[in-house]
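We treat protein structure as text, and this decision shapes the records that our systems exchange. Below, we set out a record of this kind in full and without editing:

***
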Amino acid sequence: MSMSANTEAAASSSPGKRCAACKNQRRKCAQDCVLAPYFPATDPQRYACVQRVFGASNVARMLQNLPVHERARAADTMVMEARRRVQDPVYGSAGIVGRLQGEIGAAQCELARTQAQIAVHAAAAAARAHQAPVVDAQAAQHAPAAPLEQQDDDDDARELFQGLDALLVDDYRWDALTRLL
């Protein structure tokens, strides 16, 4: 062994130079330690969480099987997944993804309802605008006929909106119920 190899081995085996993984395992940190760049000694909790969820040998094997340029991202992903798994042992990250997908679905449903309301209001306004000249012409010829037709249109609009409001209330109650579950 050359002199430089001895000094490098001594430097890597000194307690200050070991990575968090090697400190946790109570072993000397080798020069080619796969875990050292991703689990520094300054953040021992990062490795402890990953080791608890995935196991020491599995973490090292997963990182060794990846190209060098993908290892940092994989280590960060393992840390994130391990922390979520510790916080929520049943669902982990999948629970967060599921909740976010539910929120997206609720927002899309609310958007569709709002767009439907806008379309209904626009159609009602267009119908009123289209019927207004006819009503004015009829009002000039037959004064009593115009208020009855307008009252019928208002009744139709009220019935339509009451039905829509009932549907929206039912949808809102269903959304609230699914959020509770």
